[in-house]
Structure formats: structure tokens, C-alpha cells
Amino acid sequence: MSFPALLRSSTRARFLPVPRLPRLARPIGALAAVAVLTLGLAGCGSDGNDTPPPAPTGCATDSTAGDAGAALLPVPPAKVTLLTAGSEPQQAALSAFDRANAQPATLVTTSTFASPDGESATQSATTVDLPMTARVNCTDPTDIDMQIGAASSPDTALNEALKAQNGSRAGMSIGPGVAPISLRILPGDNADDNARQAVEEALVSTFQRSVTLPTEPIGVGATWEAVRTVNAGANVRQSINATLTARNGDQLTVEFTIDESPINSVFRLPDGGTLTIASYSMTGNGTVIIDLTRGVPVSGQMKISGGRTLVGGDNTQFQQLLGFESNWSQ
Questions:
Q1: Which domain holds residue 205?
Q2: Number of domains in the chain
Q3: Cα 123-17-196 angle, rounded to 5 deg
Q4: Which pTM value belongs to this model?
């Protein structure tokens, strides 16, 4: 496999956001970049039928955690440091999931990619509209089940491929701070690589940047920092600085900024080789409404962008400019 192909393979297998089949190019200047995990998702499809199975109701009586075919995919935990507790009244943000009612939700994401290189410059954008039904497990309040509905995309070919995702399932375990600590994917045979990768990127890029709440009592105006390390070819330090701007019963509105930077200059390729990170940055911000009775956010938007420059042993440079946006709605 050629060096550019290896680097492309590493990007697709380990990093988000990444559009489908991006082409790497040599940079004209040194810009900055990012890396984030990717993981495998396959759907238990509906044989190409446009109509998804009926949305489930109530709580989940079974779990992807108990399925022998489900892949367990850890989400790095975040260390939360409460900076200011906010105004009175202060109350701990403890989950109290609603077992009687399933949660309809929609996640829309857009991954962008650009490789500036004169006449060989490339750029692309992949948008995925991912409806789902989230349910807490009937007996385990830390287990959230997600059934994927009729996923779609403005891209005609991808939109057709996504039909096979109707009815596929995913799940996650919730830890302290109402944060996902693992994702579970129940693979199926009907979705092709493009459909699987598109849904993978939507879920992983979103949940790996989810806001973790403090376990201490907090009030409006509370501020905290959540730090996690993502091992994704490069070891990436992700820092989220958050502020509780409003609270209405079980619903918390949080505004946040996000910064991702490499811990060292080593970028590992799938074949065991390494590159040097010459420059790297990824920054963004967002707002999310977390309902302590629900398994996924009821509303929110996040946008992050940046880039990276990688250098090979022969001083060949490769540049990527990346971006990712996510939007939650009911």
C-alpha cells in the first residue's frame, strides 16, 4: 500500500470527522489539524425498504449489551473539575430516566474535508439525517437503547445506501455525569460500507464530544472543565469548558467551548509506521439541552473545525482541513 493510501486508511479507520474516501494531498503551507476516533457500525436493515419498522415504545426489555453479536466500543471517560458551583439553589444533576415513554430524537451531522493543493485541491461535505428512538432499559437505568429510523442524506447515492439502516440498533452505557462511557453496535449484513461509515461518523463524532455534567450540586452560572484523552493514532487531549446557563426542572441548558490538541508529536499508521505532527488544532463551541429523564439530548448544536499537517520521514507533508457539526432535535 502506498504512503498516501496508508495515511488515508488511518484517517478513515481512526479519525473523525472524515468524509467518504477523502484524498490526501501535499500542503502549500503549514496549517493545523485534528484527529478523533472512528468505529464500526452496521445496521440490521430492512432489505432496502424505505419504510422503517414501527418505532418502539416504553422501556427496552432487551439490550445490545446482552447480544453475542454486539461490538463494545469504549468512549474515553472525562475527568470533570467543578470551577464554580453557581447561584442558589444548587442541586446535583442526577439522571432519572423515564421508563414509561420512549424518546423520539433526530441527530443531523455534517462532516467537511478539504485538502488545498493548487490544481489538485479537493473538498467535500457529508450530511446525515439520523432519526432514532431512545429508550432506557426496563431494569438497568444505565443502559440506553437506540433504534435507528429512516436515515437520509442530501447525497443521492448515500441516501439510497442509508435505506438499509432502517431498524438497525445501537446502545450505550451511561456513567456519572450522564455521560456515555461505551457505545455498542449490533452489526447486520444489509448496509454497505458507505452507509455504515456515514452512521458511524455521526454517532461517534457526536458522543465523543458530549458534555459531562459535574456530580456535585450546581446552580445557574456553574462552570466546569471536562478533560478526556482520545487515543486515535495521535493521543489527543480534549478539553470542554462548560457553563450552566439555565435550569428548568430536569432540563439543563449548557453552553460550552471545545479544544482538541495532540499530547505529543507522534502519529501512528495502521502498518506500525509513524509520522510527525507538525501542526494541529481543533476548536469549536456549542449549546446543549440535557433532559435528565431522557437518554440523548433534546436539543443542541455543536460546531468544531481545524486542521493538521503531518510530516513523513522524507519530509513530505500532508495537510487536511476538517470540520464537524451536529444538531439534536426532538
A1: 3-329
A2: 1
A3: 100
A4: 0.83
